Amino acid sequence: NFEEISDEEKRFPIAFARTVYRDYLMLEQMLSVEYAPHNVYCYSLDRKADKKFKERIRALSRCFSKNVFVSDEEYNVYSSGKNVSRSHLACLEKLNKRKEDWKYVVLLQNHDLPLRTNAELVRIFKAYNGTNDIATKNIVPNTVVKSLDWSLKGLRLYRNENAYPPNIKQLNHTKSLNLIVLSRAAVNFTLKQLNVYPFIDQYVIWRTYGKQTNRCMSDYLRHDMPSFDYGAIFCWLSTLAARRLSREIDINEKYYQQLPHIFQ
């Protein structure tokens, strides 16, 4: 029953790209809360995931074949970051070829929970006015080998040799989360104008100095993640589903419009 979907939502389709590897039932329940027939959903499978999990995800995509699908490529994805970007790019490549006029895409990991209803996301993304939502901060020292060539031309970053901006010669490195929100225009530019794979390869291969270890270097925290509690997840998703059915919208649109990076 999609009677709770407003015309505003239908005029503003959203895409979701999620890298997955475990906990199928939780993923199915998240889709039941997020799903709208005018949105599009892409799952990128971790190559290491077990066979039964992959079969379930593919069966789910067949049930909703019009707008739920699985990316063509599989990568061995690691929590250290290896192949996370490639996994998402596999979905972005497929999403960008779709006929749906989606406005924004949300990049997600396996256990990233929705915090807003679809109607609220539409209001937030409309407030963004075409701006991307990418959190950045300074990188940890020694995570970039500075002796390597990080110039735009050295990385062959642009597909067109004549497209290099004259006032930008070198990349400045910053750190971001994997969970980001990109406009359709940004995705199209990245896939059509840029060649990002040499940069990804160079950064992943030469990411840190010295020998790596699995030992907990701080002797305090290893992954900084709490124990998995499905009861809390079920409770929250039920709450979000109820809010969606009631058409409740609880956001301060002016807050998003006044964020410093938003296009005015």
UniProtKB/TrEMBL annotation:
Organismal lineage: Eukaryota, Metazoa, Ecdysozoa, Nematoda, Chromadorea
Top-level taxonomic group: Eukaryota
GO cellular component: membrane
Major location category of this protein: membrane
Record's keyword annotation contains Membrane: yes
One Pfam short name: Branch
TM annotation in the entry: none
Keyword Glycoprotein found: yes
UniProt membrane topology term: Single-pass type II membrane protein
Places the protein is found: Membrane
Keywords: Glycoprotein, Glycosyltransferase, Membrane, Transferase
Organism: Meloidogyne javanica (Root-knot nematode worm)
Protein name, UniProt field: Core-2/I-Branching enzyme
GO MF, any single term: glycosyltransferase activity
